[in-house]
Amino acid sequence: MFGLGMAMFGGVLGCASAHSDRAAPGGAAGDLGANVAGTSAGGASDSGGASDSGGAPSGGASAMGDACVEHPTLLRSQGTELSLRLSPTLDGKPMAFGQPNTASDGGSVVPLNFRFYISEVQLLPKSGDPVAVDLVTQNGDAENYGTHLFNADDDDSSTVRVLAPVGEYVGFSFALGIKLACNQQSPRNLADPLTDVSQMTWPHTGGFLYLRYEGRYTAADGSSMTPSDIPSAVHMGGSITKEMVPRATVSGALPIDANGRAQANLYVAMDEMFRGATSNVDVSDVAIGLLSTPESIAGERLRRGLPDLHVFTLGEFQAIQ
Amino acid sequence: MTKASQRVALTVISAALLAACSSDPTSPAQDSAPSLIVSTIPAGFPKGTNIELAPADNALTVERATLGKRLFYDPQLSRTSEVSCGSCHQQAYAFADPNPVSTGIEGRTGTRNAPSIVNAAWGKSFFWDGRAHTLEEQAGKPIENPVEMDLTLADAVDRVAGDPSYVDAFQKAYGEAPSEASLQKALASFVRSVVSGSSAYDRHLRGDDSDFGEQRKRGEALFASEKAECFHCHPAGSLSNEGYFNNGTYTAGGDTGREQVTGRVGDIGKFKVPGLRNISLTAPYMHDGSLPTLEAVIDQYDAGGRGDPTTDPLIKPMSLTDEEKADLLEFLRSFTDAALLEDARFAP
Nearest-CA neighbor of A266 among A317, A212, A198? Predict the structure, then answer.
């Protein structure tokens, strides 16, 4: 398995141009997906309800189709820029990265690494089909691979921008991860945010992590004993052979009008993420050895539990003229 | 770099790239010798050659890198003219320092081990604490550091400006008299030209396993496994994710590393993840040079670090067997590029 993975990461030298190597689907016998058939979190395209999550990306319109394209063609050349400011919280308060944050039990949590991918964003109209929208940069270009990497240590990554058509929406949904076609690619052949610098590469499956968290907990009495409901690390990934990216749906009024911009906070409740990662969701169907570490077990529990969690919550919507 | 500036950079450097790929014999700085600049990507590194990654305002040319090499080895850039950049970044040690900490002018010593400059063209930040964001920014700091070269950049410029051959070289390289900016750019250009990509590991990544036997493959598998978890920081190929982590070397009262840049308690003991090319040549190890051998490095990781509570949660005791340690060691030795040590292009 590792030989295959390493071969997949082969690169180039000299003046020759890069070749396009690609993971062989099914080649990584150890990927999670091979052992959790039918366990993609939730049903497809579930929507509605307050910040519920789950399900593989729906078969609705996509900004990129199924391919992993570095510079995808924008679905629409015009629209209102909707900026969503990702704001992690702990115990209902803003969570500062790299600093002690008070948890509900009086202990403190210092986040050391927290990042995740967002892709395949869809606005949810009051009626009708979801509306696929482009993830765009501050300059209005399409984000590489239609994918955004949130990195809590990089303030510039905290804002997710989509180009939205005029309409009355009741929420939105997104894939908490990257599309399968990108997960099957070697990071050697990809550009940001799908390079090793993302810190999301996961060589033993040949794919990427979808979400990564590491942190340090200190109890109120000063001891470093980590409680059972606050993990020190969560690594959520999937498979290079099948679609396993969970989908988050966030409810809230999004009245998008023309000729302007709009913004809102998108709160990320770490407590809920911790709750999912430390739940008793059964992952025993995954082969021993593949989930051999506490962080990957925590990640799989989180992935499976997302439909019942309220990790993402929309803040106040503001139209900017 | 924005896409627009990348396009500009590519346009500007296209001539240089073509010259480099053909080892332009007409270059006045090279005569018939191999070009100092070779457009290249070591096996497994991300997209972009060292030439393509140079910033738009400092396109990588033979003239600039050659000037930078002269500056790199010139002790005039230290106040007492005792040490040069090359004093601490020695080619014989893959451009690292064999001493735990380097010795600057007048016998002054710092607190950190001099990292290798090899393949720095792909770096995202520089120094153990990442306080420099570009090679150009990095280049001037050792010159000004009181325990290293202790010379202001202004004084450094005055010194080279007094040498007509330097003035001529700056004119050819940058079309201007020596300045602080062009001095730093030239040094960065030389560093950007120092690329290592001919190790057994590089050949293995390109499909040639003639010097990558079963033990190295076992070590590679362990390296990439959840047991050893090396890959989280040292992903296959580039062998660095360019991040900052507390790998368990820090102990209370020691060098706090990244925290000195950010002021965040969570960054105490974090240091930049180094690339591992030529790691068997760059002893001693860790930010403080406190581990004399690779065996000691493996033992420290196997123990889960030194026990400080600030240690990254992924650094845990591994219970490696002696055979596994030997496999890892052999894998690490596959990163050695012996040709680099004798490459006359990078020598003084």
Answer: A317
Q: Mind listing the pLDDT tens digit for each residue in A18-45?
A: 223 333 333 332 333 322 222 233 333 3
The letter for the amino acid at B194 is V
CB-closest option in A112, A204, A233 to B266: A112
Residue among A11, A191, A203 whose CB faces B43 most closely: A11
Percent of chain A with pLDDT over 90: 59
CA distances in angstroms from A47 to A173, A225, A270, listed in the order given: 8, 39, 22
Dihedral over Cα of B16, B66, B193, B271: its sign: negative
Q: Is residue A205 part of a domain?
A: yes
User: What is the domain count for chain A?
Assistant: 1
What average pLDDT does the segment A274-293 reach? Answer: 80
The residue ranges of chain B whose pLDDT is under 70 are 1-33
Q: Chain B interface, mutation test: which of A188, A217, A286, most B Cβ atoms within 10 Å?
A: A188
Q: How far is B322 from chain A (nearest CA, A)?
A: 21
Res A205: pLDDT: 67
* Paired tokens of A78: 């015009």
pLDDT tens track for B241-259: 999 999 999 999 999 999 9
Residues of B in contact with A215 (CB under 8 A): 313
**Residue A112: closest C-alpha in chain B:** B266
Mark yes or no for CB contact B236/A216 under 8 Å: no
Q: Which of A10, A197, A293 sits opposite B44 (nearest CB)?
A: A10
Residues of A in contact with B260 (CB under 8 A): none
Contact residues, chain B, for A111 at CB < 8 Å: 266
Integer Cα distance of A103 and A309 in angstroms: 18
- The reply to whether A210 falls in a domain is yes
Question: What confidence tier does A174 reach under pLDDT thresholds 50, 70, 90?
Answer: very high
* Residues from chain B contacting residue A141 (CB–CB below 8 Å): 3
A54-74 pLDDT, tens digit per residue, is 443 333 344 456 899 999 999
Q: Quote the DSSP letter at residue A22.
A: B
List CB contacts of B182: < 8 A, sequence separation 6 or more. Answer: B170, B173, B174, B176
Which regions of chain A does DSSP assign to beta strands (E)? 80-90, 93-94, 101-102, 108-125, 131-132, 134-136, 147-151, 159-164, 167-175, 201-202, 207-218, 233-237, 247-256, 261-269, 312-314, 318-320
**pLDDT for the residue B33:** 64
Q: What is the mean pLDDT of chain A?
A: 80
Amino acid at the residue B340:
L
- Judged against a pLDDT cut of 80, whether residue A261 lies above it is answered with yes
Phi-psi region of B37 (alpha: psi -120 to 50; beta: other; left: phi over 0): beta
**Residues of the domain holding A144:** 34-320
Residues contacting residue B314 through CB under 8 Å, at least 6 positions apart: A214, A233, A295, B229, B232
* Contact of B97 with B114, CB cutoff 8 Å: yes
Between chains, do A9 and B47 touch, taking CB under 8 Å as contact?
no
Residues of A in contact with B264 (CB under 8 A): 97-99
Contact B210, B216 (CB under 8 A): no
Output the CA torsion sign for B15, B20, B26, B29: positive
What is the pTM for the complete model shown?
Answer: 0.85
Check: complex ipTM more than 0.90: no
B327, B220 contact by CB (below 8 A)? no
Which pLDDT does position A65 carry in this prediction? 64
User: Does residue A172 lie within any of the structural domains?
Assistant: yes
Predicted confidence at residue A293, as pLDDT, reads 85
Q: Which domains does chain B have, with CATH numbers?
A: 3-195 (1.10.760.10), 200-337 (1.10.760.10)
- A274, pLDDT greater than 80: yes
* Residue A5 belongs to a domain: no
